[in-house]
Amino acid sequence: MATIEDVARLAGLSRTTVSRVINNHPYVSEEKRQTVRSAMEQLGYVPNSIAQRLRTQTNETVAVLIPRLSNPFFSHLVDAMEDIAALYRFQLIICQTKSGKEREILYLDWLKTRQIGGVIFASSENDWQDIKRYQQYGPILFCNEYPPGTEAPIIHLDQLQGGYMGTQHLIERGHTKIGYCYSGRQNTNIRDRFKGLKLALKDHGLSIKEDWIFKDAYDTKDGGRIYYEIMALKDRPTAVFTGSDEVALGIIAEARRNGTHVPKELAVLGFDDQPIAGLMDPGISTVYQPVKDIGKMAMELMIQLIRGGHPVQQITELPLHLIVRAST
Amino acid sequence: MATIEDVARLAGLSRTTVSRVINNHPYVSEEKRQTVRSAMEQLGYVPNSIAQRLRTQTNETVAVLIPRLSNPFFSHLVDAMEDIAALYRFQLIICQTKSGKEREILYLDWLKTRQIGGVIFASSENDWQDIKRYQQYGPILFCNEYPPGTEAPIIHLDQLQGGYMGTQHLIERGHTKIGYCYSGRQNTNIRDRFKGLKLALKDHGLSIKEDWIFKDAYDTKDGGRIYYEIMALKDRPTAVFTGSDEVALGIIAEARRNGTHVPKELAVLGFDDQPIAGLMDPGISTVYQPVKDIGKMAMELMIQLIRGGHPVQQITELPLHLIVRAST
DNA sequence: CAATGATATGGAATCGATTTCATTTTAGTT
DNA sequence: AACTAAAATGAAATCGATTCCATATCATTG
């Protein structure tokens, strides 16, 4: 591998001049510039970016922490982030935390050892106080989810508004007995969404029964189980606000198998607007989250911060959109 | 940020000794070892890995080139790769090529500039000759797809066997008029799969009509269109082997809407075994690809190569599995 | 007791770039 | 022609580690 030294020698000039040519600095005569260029060409020289990073103390790599990539929400989020990163020639490192506290810290340590320039949390299990101490090593920001008390830039979706909007839609369709499913995990997003639901109910003089709240709702299988749990109730909800399209799909599939009409006997509202939602028959009404938008915004901001911007404790909140199909 | 120099000064020892402690080298007395340890502790010192990389000329980061992350096949593949990378404390960099030749080369240049230690191609648009020249800068291997003539390690799925197996299944179900859909792109995988189909037909004294080959089949929408194309034919296939579950889903959905019975009037075989395949009613028969397995194997091999293994021109081929549901 | 090998430690070179500072050359002004 | 500012160039320091080589101490052995 040719080094800057080799180029300098071949060109009969100093390393300084070669460096100036590489970095397009002024005060190099056109003649020498050409000499250097051809020497670089001849040797197939490219600057060693590790050496550059060490010298300039910059690191144009961003780590993104997500629970797992096979979750479509996160793969779409990272997809959008990578587009922006590539645009600025930044590198994007994938870190799957598997929702583990220790894994998160493991990846944060990469910030400490200067392996990466900044960290975007797309989900987080640790408390803010434990993450905070890493801020001194580089910019940290949150996209989508964030721990309570976060003192760092946050770009997220207005889950409260999403919960409110979805619930209001069900109420407008004439439902007064509305059920709710959620994963059972407690994070800001899930909490806010539930707050939105309760707020909408309250604003319309309604409330939710304890029996109508279903936990551990992650996938289609859970949806199937929840269908039976609903049917087993004496006082049943006539509509369910599920936390995900998968769960909605599970409920709808089981309902069909058992001859329960959707939405007449049971209305089902999904969340996410994943491809399946539009393809099912009946199509699943759902709440669309502008994932790509927050992904792009987060990466844009991160790049600015790494390039020397000042981290402002700013909160950006994007609205969710209701997509009405046939299931409600 | 504390440097090794600071630690040495505080401990009253040389940088050499501190380095020896960091790297667990012998010939350091237990006493000094403790002195160094506590100095490191006191200063909150961690070695700068950029400096380490420069000095040791090692780079424990791997770039994975995929068309796009929102394609579930690739997000699952990368998921598996990241698990292994994390295990060895390697970094995984995501590179979405958007199936663009130039983008591929852009990322390959990162190998040249030493930003990354090795590259895994999960798909590739460039010819082998154009990729070959980058081998001198670090290990390159192919996982899933590869250009003809590749002289690098390949880990892939036996698409020929997959095509054969799927076709044989349809023949066993009594079909003699079998249609085929594919993306229209030409890569080794798609070609091999088609070869498998033709081979199975030939072995049973059958053949395919030009009219029964449908191109530009990427998603559900295309599936819908293809359904009508099939129905418009005078001499119709009674079964279709689609290149993806999405396309199969599109055909099935449109068939149902038009009262065409699946599988009686038209049998549909998918590919990939994506979650929807099992959830649909009727469930989609499909060909399952052990994606996680090739992902893990590829990353294991890459790490060995980066650690100084000898790249052998080896080809690892994993079999596909048939999953029979209700659509065939 | 001298010779030898194992253990411990540090000085200085090195990895491959950028940048400061000093020096020389050129161009412009009076 | 003399003077000054701008342009061009290079020597050497620097980023933060590792490692080669030299040297010093210690224990062991014949």
Automatic annotation (TrEMBL), chains A, B:
Highest taxon, organism lineage: Bacteria
Transmembrane segments: none
Protease recorded as keyword: no
Domain HTH lacI-type per the UniProt entry, residue ranges: 2-56
Keyword DNA-binding included in the entry's annotation: yes
A single GO molecular function term of this UniProt record: DNA-binding transcription factor activity
Keyword list, A-Z: DNA-binding, Transcription, Transcription regulation
Protein name listed in UniProt: LacI family transcriptional regulator
Organism this protein belongs to: Pullulanibacillus pueri
Record gene name: cytR
